[in-house]
């Protein structure tokens, strides 16, 4: 398999940067390990928000299937902003079907996810064929693409709380490590720095919601849950000043990341 790469023109020379390396460079350059989970139902609002917090985040995560005004034009605008502010776009699609079906879900339909999402999330429940299907589909695009495997979930009673399952997910990541650049996780799963651990369920003021979400603080997420990237949604979205709150999570998150991971 070919490494997913981004072709960038520098002084008329084209260089290729694998998506994993690009992610790590963005984090270092921007001093940010904050992924904003923009769980809003209006893409125009997400576009405005992404300009407001663009300099504070290393990644923006969306759920395109909750948007009431999705269009390929608007998603292109968001993609342009992500390039301007230098953050990745993650579609939290949570693919969970057989290889052939996910290939279609990734490339076709209303959303044509492969055309704009740098990264997607994937359940490995169907087995490694799901990753094969997505990786194959990604090769039709002349831009780097990658995925995050959902190893563990933040919600109460998650069935991912099973050592054998998690071990299987890690094995799958190792086998397809060109396309799989990390995990959605609640603990450190590998000793190498190769895989980025992205952890949702982060909030400074709440411990959970009414529907099973469980929160830890940014420092706990990094120290106790092994996170590299903090995925933060309502803590920022529901705050009075989203820009200021995003900056707080960026600063607290990156400071803890530097101290704990000793990068
Ligand atoms: P919030 O910070 O508002 O609770 O949002 C968390 C986000 O992360 C949601 O978009 C949710 O779908 C996602 N998420 C999660 O909360 N737990 C997981 O285990 C995996 C997720 O993708």
UniProtKB/TrEMBL annotation:
Keyword annotations from UniProtKB, A to Z: Decarboxylase, Glycosyltransferase, Lyase, Multifunctional enzyme, Pyrimidine biosynthesis, Transferase
GO process terms (BP): 'de novo' pyrimidine nucleobase biosynthetic process; 'de novo' UMP biosynthetic process
Protein family (similarity comment): In the N-terminal section; belongs to the purine/pyrimidine phosphoribosyltransferase family.
Superkingdom to which the source organism belongs: Eukaryota
Active site: 92, 94, 97
Keyword Membrane set for record: no
Domain (Orotidine 5'-phosphate decarboxylase) ranges: 33-249
Pathways per UniProt: Pyrimidine metabolism; UMP biosynthesis via de novo pathway; UMP from orotate: step 1/2; Pyrimidine metabolism; UMP biosynthesis via de novo pathway; UMP from orotate: step 2/2
Lineage of the species this protein comes from: Eukaryota, Metazoa, Spiralia, Gnathifera, Rotifera
Binding site for substrate: 39, 61, 154, 213, 233-234
Name recorded for this polypeptide: Uridine 5'-monophosphate synthase
GO molecular function: orotate phosphoribosyltransferase activity; orotidine-5'-phosphate decarboxylase activity
Keyword Lipid biosynthesis appears in the UniProt entry: no
E.C. number: 2.4.2.10, 4.1.1.23
